[in-house]
Design a protein that fits this description.
The complex is a heterodimer of chains A (508) and B (328). Chain A contains 22 helices and 2 strands. By secondary structure, chain A is mostly helical. A two-stranded antiparallel ribbon of chain A has the order 1-2. The termini of chain B are far apart. The chains are: A mainly alpha (508), B alpha/beta (328).
Chain lengths: 508, 328
């Protein structure tokens, strides 16, 4: 039980008034950014990152990760009350959450969302607690071919498992890869696509792109649609909460399945978004009456929220142990770690025990405190959305601009952010998904470097991607996922033939 | 009588922690610009200076570390170049000021900045995995006998690590595949995981994994051994590492760590910083840092520094040309 002792040590590191206050501040800020449409986890963390530079790493990461938990909780509020997903991973929550709210069961839906968020994170934290030491020794097995295989797996799973049209995902991803190539190429030591501009030397920061693509474009869309934000009364009484909790054991299969999907996708960098959709789709697929989904079924809230949180939490594990972020927000936290002089990687667990276990302990505390906080403050946060859009929008734009500027203290980045805002707007109009674009921008450079280093090391043969069991199985899995729609179709056909009837009407 | 008074003034200025004469002083926080990523050797040094200045009260204004490691450090160089006349920015420079303009055709020349002082010299060490060959000779034999070339990890392409690898090839006759990673830390981890056979990291970059017994120092690329004799691991000190020349491979390279102001600042401003960094080199923090990271203490300023820079520039240029890394 080494992990248990270290965890207790983590709690000891954490239990100072200063840290606890920072935790509360982080959670409140996180719920706040989660509620505001267009802001959200990655943006919130990105904007607040420079504030933490003067803190010691443990306090800083505790505060930032609490913003992250807060945003995860907060994202569900707007999805359910207003049908506006505050976060990309909350989209699936709107499918059944919003109908529930319209039927006057908002309190029930919110309780379900928060509770399942809590359960999802808890399962993931337990996993981190007991697997982290193992994962860090496993991490040393990763050389360039293994890293490339993981990146390939991520790209392929986006294409193969995404809900959007495949060609649009590929277009979006390719554009992201193209932009990721701007700047210094570390493998050859030459500049690429900078066209002599000193501003382009450092390349395009993906945070600037994300703030523009999601934040600014959402504002543009909302303006165009003249979306009136009409709130529903959202008081939570203890009776409703207890009622939902009493029914919880009935849904244990859904909760367990979603937790598993979430952890798996979080650890293999697939992201919370994919997890929430997969959780929802699978719950629907295995339900006795799939037709009732989408009409206000509480299971339709449990499934995506549990998965999103399990994956959002477990995404921190590869970030800490391997230096590979499992989600956009984890990627920003990764940048933060480096700023504080902590190099994420296998040795982080050995060299910075205080920090790592402090963080893990903060996940437990942050979750419990977060649950209590959201359950009590829902009415207050919901009232933000009663403020006229005309007053909220400028505030969001200003905070986006500050966020973009603060990353590298460059005015150029604000123009870039506005440019990406327009790109995001156009993408949404023509139905090109934004997630693959951002993913490619984050991982493109590293995937390219890993591929080229593998090629230098192997003397140019692709066999290196099947040179041992680890890299071979990841590469093969990546290719299977890429062609998953085809394989799934074939399996479905065989299944139908065998059963002699149709049983597959559940795909959304 | 004039000269002794002046000398006395200079002496008091050095003795007192706050300037005794009313010269120029920064009126706003000073930005210390790092041309590398977070946690790298430059960043660590910048933070040491920040702490030394703050703890010993050497300057009224605070110092902030500003990371401009984009484009392998070119971002920092262009930033300094475009900050002409701004005395609140100090660059902590290393050999990239000579190499980047040559290899990537970055429009930059260190002569456009104002040299303040050279504060340290950094060493390079040949490291292998602790499960690998135990001496340079064994290492060279193994490298020559290997069916596919040994993989040598390093930071960046066509830079100091890459240059050293090329000269190592020339002197030993062995072939290496050079793998350019993004940072020295990454090169260290990859060596521990056995994904490369060796690296030529600075002492500070491999210090932690050496202490953990995961890598072994084979030789130091310098004329003489590192002077620090305090034990770093259970059995070894920095001074126990032989020079590469002793081991029969005559390759030498040392890298400057120097402070620069942007171009077109006044002589007074330059003097303030020269004095400030001189005081920094007298602090316990600096001395401790030098020993821990096995850096060579040095302090050059004024004409001495310019002469050093010119010679160092010429040397780096000839190495880069010989290695074939100069862009056409």
């Amino acid at each position: 039980m080494e992990a248990f002792g270290l965890l207790l040590h983590g709690f000891a590191v954490l239990l100072t008034w200063k840290t606890l206050v920072l935790m509360m501040v982080g959670l409140v800020l996180g719920i706040f950014v989660g509620v505001l449409p267009g802001l959200g986890g990655p943006n919130g963390v990105a904007i607040l990152l420079p504030l933490t530079f003067t803190m010691d790493p443990t306090s800083a990461i505790v505060m930032l990760s609490c913003i992250y938990w807060g945003a995860l909780f907060g994202g569900a509020i707007t999805s359910i009350l207003f049908n506006i997903p505050g976060e990309a991973w909350s989209v699936a929550t709107t499918f059944d959450g919003y109908p529930m709210a319209q039927q006057g069961r908002a309190a029930e839906a919110l309780t379900a969302a928060f509770t399942s968020s809590f359960i999802g994170s808890l399962v993931a934290v337990l996993l981190i607690t007991f697997l982290a030491p193992m994962i860090s020794s496993f991490a040393l097995k990763f050389g360039p071919p293994e890293f490339f295989a993981v990146y390939l797996l991520t790209f392929c799973s986006f294409v193969g498992l995404g809900r959007e049209a495949k060609h649009k995902t590929v277009i979006s991803m390719s554009l992201g890869l193209l932009l990721a190539g701007i700047g210094m190429d570390t493998v050859s030591g030459n500049l690429r696509m900078t066209f002599g501009s000193p501003e382009l030397l450092r390349g395009i920061n993906f945070l600037v792109a994300v703030i523009g693509l999601f934040g600014i474009s959402e504002i543009l869309l909302t303006m165009e649609e003249r979306l009136a934000l009409r709130g529903h009364a959202a008081g939570i009484s203890l009776r409703v909460v207890l009622g939902v909790w009493k029914d919880l054991p009935k849904y244990w299969v859904t909760l367990l399945r979603s937790s598993f999907i979430g952890c798996w996708l979080g650890i293999t960098p697939g992201g919370a978004i994919a997890a929430s959709f997969m959780g929802y789709n699978l719950a629907k697929r295995f339900a006795k009456e799939p037709g009732s989904f989408g009409k206000g079924r509480i299971e339709g809230v449990f499934a995506p929220e549990t998965a999103a949180h399990a994956s959002g939490t477990s995404a921190l594990l590869p970030m800490l142990a391997l230096g590979i972020p499992g989600s956009g927000t984890a990627a920003i936290l990764l940048g933060g770690l480096m700023v504080w002089g902590l190099n994420p990687g296998p040795l982080l667990f050995v060299e910075h025990k205080d920090f790592v276990w402090g963080l893990i302990a903060s996940m437990y505390l942050g979750n419990v405190v977060g649950l209590v906080l959201v359950l009590t403050t829902v009415p207050i946060f919901a009232s933000i959305l009663r403020v006229p859009f005309a007053a909220v929008a400028p505030m969001i734009v200003v905070s986006c601009a500050i966020g973009a500027y603060a990353i590298q203290n460059a005015m150029f980045d604000i123009w870039l952010m506005l440019g990406f805002g327009v790109v995001g707007y156009v993408f949404k109009k023509i139905g090109i998904p934004l997630a693959p674009f951002t993913l490619a921008l984050v991982l493109g450079n590293r995937a390219e470097d890993a591929f080229r280093l593998s090629m230098i090391g192997s003397g140019g043969t692709l066999k290196v991607f099947w040179s041992n069991g680890l890299v071979g199985s990841i590469t093969t899995l990546a290719i299977v996922l890429l062609f998953w729609p085809v394989i799934d179709g074939l399996l479905g056909r065989i299944g139908r033939k065998a059963a002699g009837q149709n049983g597959d009407a559940t795909k959304s | 009588m004039r000269i002794p008074v002046k000398a006395l003034g200079a002496a008091t200025a050095l003795l007192l922690s706050t300037p005794a004469f009313a010269g120029w002083e920064p009126a706003k926080p000073v930005e210390i610009v790092v041309a590398a990523g977070a946690g790298g050797a430059s960043d660590q040094m910048a933070r040491m200076m920040q702490a030394a200045i703050q703890k010993n009260n050497l300057m009224k204004q605070p110092m902030v570390v500003s990371l401009k490691g984009g484009a392998s450090g070119a971002e920092a160089l262009m930033y300094m170049k475009s900050s002409e006349g701004d005395p609140n920015k100090v660059l902590i420079a290393y050999s990239l000021i000579y190499m980047l303009p040559l290899s990537a055709k970055i429009p930059f020349n260190w002569r456009e900045l104002t040299p303040v002082s050279v504060v340290a010299l950094d060493q390079f060490v040949l490291w292998d995995n602790s499960a690998g060959p135990k001496t340079v000779k064994e290492f060279v034999v193994a490298a020559k006998a290997a069916s596919s070339p040994f993989k040598m990890g390093g930071t960046g392409s066509k830079r100091e690590d890459h240059v050293l690898t090329v000269f190592l090839e020339q002197k030993t006759g062995a072939k290496f595949s050079y793998l350019p990673y993004k940072s020295g830390g990454e090169a260290a981890t990859q060596l521990v995981g056995n994904h490369t056979e060796a690296n030529v990291n600075n002492p500070s970059e491999n210090l932690e994994v050496w202490r953990a017994g995961q890598v072994r120092p084979l030789c130091v690329f310098d004329k003489e051994r590192i002077s620090y004799t305090g034990k770093v691991t259970d059995t070894q000190s920095w001074a126990d590492i032989p020079t590469c020349k002793e081991e029969g491979v005559d390759v030498q390279y040392r890298m400057l760590r120097a402070m620069f102001l942007p171009g077109k600042v006044t002589a007074e401003q330059q003097a303030f910083y020269a004095d400030l960094f001189h005081k920094v080199t007298q602090t316990a923090e600096y001395k401790d840092y030098m020993e821990k990271q096995a850096l060579k203490p040095i302090f050059l300023t004024g004409k001495d520094m310019v002469q050093f820079l010119e010679e160092d520039d010429a040397l780096n240029k000839s190495l880069m040309t010989e290695a074939g890394f100069v862009a056409k």
